[in-house]
Amino acid sequence: MSIDIGGMRIKYKDKDDTFLEKHLVSKEPFGQFKAWFEEACTRKEILEPNAMCLATSSKDGYPSARFVLLKGFGKEGFKFFTNYGSRKAKEMEINPNVAATFYWEILNRSVRIEGSVEKLSEEESTSYFHSRPVPSQIAACASYQSTPIESRDILCEREKELEAKYMIPGLEVPKPAYWGGYIIRPRAVEFWQGQRDRLHDRIKFRKPKEGEEPDEKILHRGEDGWVFERLSP
Ligand SMILES: Cc1cc2nc3c(=O)[nH]c(=O)nc-3n(C[C@H](O)[C@H](O)[C@H](O)COP(=O)(O)O)c2cc1C
């Protein structure tokens, strides 16, 4: 049986409030991301504005994607945490090139990041691990992420054992060696603003190719070594 959902569509905008180059609040991607992210955080309809879909790729070139939560960003990059034994981590070990996408539906906005990952320091991962609620720390210890498991009961058993061991005043749950963070150092960041009749706005920041010089018409000089250009929707 095939279900036809070809008629499912929404109108993005009634009025034509375009996202033009003059509306950029920053000529480098982090300042622009900060502005859009902060706006997304003010909208109660967006429950997890920091949720991003992270795509990695196996050594044979088969991509896989899943959501993770952004836990920090700045000029140095975008940070998230996970299990270093997980499928994504194994893929990033072999191929550090990743892509991540945010979608803030109520704002008709999306941000696309492309770059390569590096592991965060053990100190930073440990410090973030202990800032999480204790049940989440226990869950991270109980789960060998991405490995097949016979039943949920086994997971709950492990959780109980760890609770008995560590949920004692004065004791800290030790961060497992297989858990930690990554930073995506971006090569490109695109800002997508949905517009009326699918004539969307796309402004992409990227690092220039070797010898590539900005020109007046298409490729604009940004700040901090970035250039930006408008892409067709
Ligand atoms: C909204 C959302 C946020 C998530 N955040 C994280 C996260 O920050 N870190 C993480 O390891 N998994 C997170 N997950 C679970 C992942 O999507 C995924 O199931 C898990 O990381 C295993 O992926 P993998 O087998 O491809 O490595 C999140 C899932 C959702 C839906």
UniProtKB/TrEMBL annotation:
Pathway it works in: Cofactor metabolism; pyridoxal 5'-phosphate salvage; pyridoxal 5'-phosphate from pyridoxine 5'-phosphate: step 1/1; Cofactor metabolism; pyridoxal 5'-phosphate salvage; pyridoxal 5'-phosphate from pyridoxamine 5'-phosphate: step 1/1
Residue ranges annotated for the Pyridoxine 5'-phosphate oxidase dimerisation C-terminal domain, each copy included: 179-233
GO aspect biological process, one term: pyridoxine biosynthetic process
Highest taxon listed in the record's lineage: Eukaryota
Keyword Flavoprotein listed: yes
Cofactors that this protein relies on: FMN
Pyridoxamine 5'-phosphate oxidase N-terminal domain sequence ranges: 43-155
Keywords, alphabetical: Flavoprotein, FMN, Oxidoreductase, Pyridoxine biosynthesis
Keyword Transcription regulation set for record: no
GO MF annotations, alphabetized: FMN binding; pyridoxamine phosphate oxidase activity
E.C. designation(s): 1.4.3.5
Functional note: Catalyzes the oxidation of either pyridoxine 5'-phosphate (PNP) or pyridoxamine 5'-phosphate (PMP) into pyridoxal 5'-phosphate (PLP).
Family: Belongs to the pyridoxamine 5'-phosphate oxidase family.
Subunit composition and interactions: Homodimer.
Name the record gives this protein: pyridoxal 5'-phosphate synthase
UniProt source species: Eumeta variegata
Top-level taxonomy: Eukaryota, Metazoa, Ecdysozoa, Arthropoda, Hexapoda
Gene this protein is translated from: PNPO
